[in-house]
Amino acid sequence: MGNVHGYEGVAIVGYGETDYHKTDSQPAVFYIADAVSRALNNAGMTPKEVDGLSVTSFQIPPDNTTTIAEHLGLSLRWAFHGVYGGASGIIGIAQGARAIQNGDADVVVVVAGDAFNVAAHNTMMAQFNIPLRDYVSYYGFGGANGIFALVQQRHMYEFGTTREQLGVLAVTQRFHASLNPNALLRTRITLADYLNARLIADPLRLYDCVMPCSGGDAVVISSVERAKKLLRDPIYIRGAGQYHNFRPKDLVVLSQGWLAYADEMFEQAHMRRDDIDLLELYDDYPIMELIQLEDLGFCAKGDGGPFLERTDVSIHGALPINTGGGQLSAGQCGAGGGMIGPVEAVRQLMHEAGGRQVPRARTALVSGFGMVAYGRGLSTSAMILANEMDDSGHS
What is the pTM of this model? Predict the structure, then answer.
């Protein structure tokens, strides 16, 4: 992973999430600005205090972080533009924390958002990058659904993973979404509903796939010293990692970059797997959640399916997963999908999740995944958060 020191002295002090919409009647910058405003209000801060900004959005080019700062009236000493898809939000938080540690910024807002409907999302995927544009979509393909159908087929073939096992995630997350007023899909589903849903790209069916939508999510980070002057207890960054182009010769990848740094991330956090109270996993598809459970070390490679059979992953269970419904039920607001997990984790650790609150939540692991290219995703990220310092006083 490469980072020999942790994220001491830095904390998350606020979060913001816009209303999610099924239409794209407003531009992406509308949702980005709204998320930033909500996060600053939540933190009890003003735009004048912000001197660092991380922005991730598929739709704002040719604009970038500096032009977004102009839109928002922010003057910056530090800027980061996320270009790693759904992995970018967590990477932005980690890089922003380093900027604060190094004295390059005092207050950093990390935001991600887009304005999509299904048609706009499909158009973007056909031009997503040069490999997809020139060598895949040119000949006709099923978008990301077609690519991850191959991943799921391969995992089922190699390890005997079943759709019944994967359905645990879809059904449980829809239950969580029924308790989340901002989720777009709140009607509960049964395992039979999941298994018998409309076929999309064999073996993927309707409830394996996210619904593109419009929205934005943001967090505010600052020094712990500054955070202590605010009205709420901060959330501490205990460990983080990122990896890109893991196992480059594998076309259908059943292990991803999380495997490369998971152990070191837990060492950095001074934690074990059983210290984690909840997971907010990047859920473009249930199969990728299962692969993350394996690669992050919560079960052995190939044991993801049986793990889901024997583990209650609801908010009432031993290891709650995607407590707000995740992207599968709340919706995927483009690149903003990479921030829905961090925002929900902070909300849970601040004990502000209302009817879906995980009792006595102290720690959370969040993950990101992005940049689908020729047959696979290229970028991963993960972070461990806690609402208390470790025993040594580290944040």
Answer: 0.95
135/200 Cα distance (integer angstroms): 22
The CATH code of the domain that includes 87 is 3.40.47.10
* pLDDT beneath 70, residues of the chain: 1-4, 120-122, 124-127, 138, 141-142, 375, 389-395
- The token pair at 148 is 């991850």
Read off the pLDDT of residues 238-257 as tens digits, 9 standing for 90 and up: 999 999 999 988 878 899 99
Residue 158: both structure tokens together: 């190699």
Q: Which domain holds residue 24?
A: 10-117+214-236
- What's the domain count of the chain? 2
**What span, in angstroms and rounded, lies between the C-alpha atoms of 334 and 127?**
14
How wide is the angle at C-alpha 57 spanned by C-alphas 52 and 60, nearest 5°? 95
**For 177, how many CA atoms within 13 A lie in the half-sphere containing its CB?**
22
* Three-state DSSP state, 332: strand
CB contact at 8 A, 377 and 258? no
Radius of gyration of the chain (CA): 19
Three-state SS string over 152-174 comes to: HHHHHHHHCCCHHHHHHHHHHHH
The closest alpha carbon to 297, from 386, 365, 378, belongs to: 365
Structure tokens at 247: 């196992």
